[in-house]
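User:
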Amino acid sequence: MSLYTRTGDQGTTYCAVLKQRVPKDHPIIEFVGALDEANSMLGLAKSLLPETFKEESQIIENVQRLIFNAGFSPLTPDKIGSKDIEWTEKTIDRFYSNPLRHFILPGGHPASAALHVARTVLRRAERRLVAIQNSTPGIYPEYTLKLLNRLSDLLFALALNINSRLGIQETPL
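Assistant: Predicted structure:
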């Protein structure tokens, strides 16, 4: 079997959520595409982590799995649940114990910078999901919206933690 299928050459793609072919700019494809971008950036962040950051590496992998499941959630709500929100909140609380008192410029260690990019892409996915919810009757992805909101906070907390552990100062605005 070949990697290419030629089935998308006319500007359509198969949407697993809807179980049908849709235009490549369909709102659900835009949503899933943003999740895929965030997931890829998380893979980059994980690859840039020093080997001593084993816990953070595992957390990033868990986040990647949650993001993958979120792609199926608009019409398959059991993919994301309250336990995922709880895990995310507990993890944020562990890594964000010293709240910032000012805005910062994203950056620092390359892994932190990649986490900041993933965070902003997740925010875009969240906006796309709200658009789907507002335009598609019967879709109310309560847990997925909450999860994406929390995951972007978690990525921010991880980015700060990594910089702090490496002695890299955040750049305030």
